[in-house]
Amino acid sequence: MEFETIRAEIHPGSVGVLTLNRPELRNAISIKMRKEISACLDAWENDSAVGVLVMTGAGAVFSAGFDLKEFRNPALTEEIFTTSSRYHRDVWKFPKPVIAAVNGPALAGGFDLAKLCDIRICSRSAAFGHPEIKFGSPVLYTPLRWIVGEGIARDLCLSGRMMGAEEALRTGLVSEVTEDGKALERALAIAATLLEAPLPALTATKGFMIDPAMEAAFLMEHDEGFRRVLPALAGTARKK
Prior knowledge:
Layout: E1 6-11, E2 15-20, H1 31-45, E3 52-57, H2 77-92, E4 98-102, E5 106-107, H3 109-115, E6 119-123, E7 127-129, H4 142-148, H5 150-159, E8 162-164, H6 165-171, E9 176-178, H7 183-194, H8 199-209, H9 213-239
Parallel strand pairs: 2-3, 3-4, 4-6, 5-7, 6-9
Antiparallel strand pairs: 1-2, 7-8
């Protein structure tokens, strides 16, 4: 498949690798990128050549979050919302195991993307945080609290502070820390280990992990919260 903002490659051994590919913009997640991620996941959902999905970023950053330039254009407000709403659900509900190979900072929407994956590993230069709280954007709280617990999730979501790789490992946000430049290689090795199990067993087990409570949480935290503050976020972006 050919895309403009992502690379989609099927590696030997039934591993699909989706790379956020806007390194010159710190892999900012644009409307087009969200649409292309959704299209890729749609294609791979029933493709027997893909048993495990690995998501990573091109260059030295996983993703700095949503492309704020788009928020400056009021005509894009509805498309920002609808593509965001769909793409988050597409990642969360993807029926096969998803590994995030976090090769560098994962901030704001980039942090959300990582936390929607099943397994996260990161490089030593990785950092995680929700700086968007400082300019008025609500934060996806529920998937983070499921991973690291209530206390740390509340701290990160309300403070906007950065969490480095070692703290991420200590709190269980990531399961491994690799040397810089090695996250994807390690993720591919983990994918190969997962694929020692039959795919029907993996997809059945993944199905147990797609908690139906997430839909109610997402409706409140994203669909209602994000739509409520979108006009204010657009005004803030236009000032930058």
